[in-house]
Amino acid sequence: MAVKYYAVKKGKMPGIYYSWNECKTQVDGFSGAEYKSFKSEKEARDYISDNSEQTSMNKSIKNTNTLAVEAYVDGSYNSRTNEFSYGMIILRNGEELKYAEKYADKEMASMHNVAGEIKGAEAAMRYAVENSLKEIIIYHDYEGIAKWCLGEWKANKEGTKAYKEYYDSVKNKVDITFVKVAGHSNNKYNDIADELAKQVLGIIEAKHVIKISKEKEDLDMGKAKSLYITRDIDKLTQLLDDTAKSIWSNVIGKGIKEVGQQKRYTFEVDGELSLLDIYQRGDGQTTLRPTGANIENATKLKAAVELRGYRATAEQKQYTMFVGEDWVEKTVQYLSGLCEGNVEKYEEEGHDRYVFVSDIGDKLTLHTYSNHRIMVQGKPLYLYNEFLSYVSYSPKVEVNDIIKATNEFIDTNTDVDEARNKMSEMMPVAYAGSVDPVIWKLFSPSVTLSNIEKDMEDYSCFTFPALRALEGYLKYLLAEKNIVIDEAHNFGTVFNKDSNDKAIVISKYVTDIADTDYVEALEEIYNYFKTNRHVIFHVDQILITTKVIENKQEATSIINDVAALIERTYKKAIK
Q: Would you list the DSSP string of 255-309?
């Protein structure tokens, strides 16, 4: 019996069908239905392509010989691994481009093959956007692929909601037409899409060469920058909202949703939706990738967020130092507090090993010994910076230890005498004066920057110590006047705001200090923190954020500014 192809031009769901019963379902009860049978699929497609108005979709399918690109998508599911996948074949300029990818999202996996077909349709839309196509025709065999997007079915699950949201974000940039085909009906390209989906899951032997999508290529090849930022959803949402507001005053943040193996942040600017995908990797790092139609806005947000994180640009390093009695336990407790208890302890032969994981995902390992020594292992990121600053307060830790640790972790080659001489040159009066020696231990890693010969992606590891030293210096000046900053007394108990939003010492302490120059020195330092982009305030506590610094000159400028501020205010306050 000859095979017939039934083309529904106007009906409940226009498309090509492979049995009369399927066709009849689409036209029965539909006023003005137009349909016809053909001996070849090409004739059926040409018949549909002549249509100028598809009632159900309000979309036009132009002749396939025009610039319209066709995409066949299908999904598959592996019940053994609970993974799902999509297969996609793009027909463009006489080429057949084959794509496939698998996912392990448990919630979406409950939809089995449909989850994969959703991802395939998304991939087809993304291909159109990334390649600046004006039009794409998506052939699919599950009717929800079109109906969720067109509002004929309500999207109830998170996966279908995200799919509809993605479609809405690109529909005004690309003319998207959906055409339903019957599954497993000897349609050449639909069958290839099905095989691709199964191949990537390992269900069938490899028979197709699969291209790597631009999205996956960027991630695999490291083109998308990886960084350490908070992994807590609420905090991450707040970070993205705050960053977006720093760019657009009228931005509306719409939160973060799980979308397959990644998360997606949605925001709206001037009525246009933009999407930023968030990949939280197993090694603690996060990669951001703009997606959807409004790539420009998403790219701006991505760049701004990357400046608020920590770059993972260095290898794991280690250094051992003597910290003295009680300081091993103090250091462990301090880091445990920073990590909100996210620490694992292992009792090993001759020592204990602690693994700390911060809110932003970076790790630091401490090996602690009974002779009061600590071996620190990790990268020069947030936790390492905090560790080095904290142990600087131990009387048993010398500048020599801090410089040696810095040389090891950041690949510098600075002699301790050279470091002392540089600090003396930068701050001659203050360095020779009565400043607490801890301040110089805190500052010392910053002077090693001049010995860095190689280019770095991020120089913030050099500015952090200088800013931390300035914080310690401010506390030192306050302590000299019997004003203590501790857990019970933050900077908000010392400083207030005037009518110009400038920080000023409160009247009680102005009276107690009884020295105008001293008060002005305190205010100058505190206002520097208030206006520095690398510092944030939380409950009137100074938090050195070490935002990414890609330019060595900017890092040098910050260090010099801090040194000049210490020298200038010391001369003014200490007479």
A: EEEEETTEEEEEEEETTEEEEEEEEE-TTS-EEEEEESS-HHHHHHHHHHHHTTS
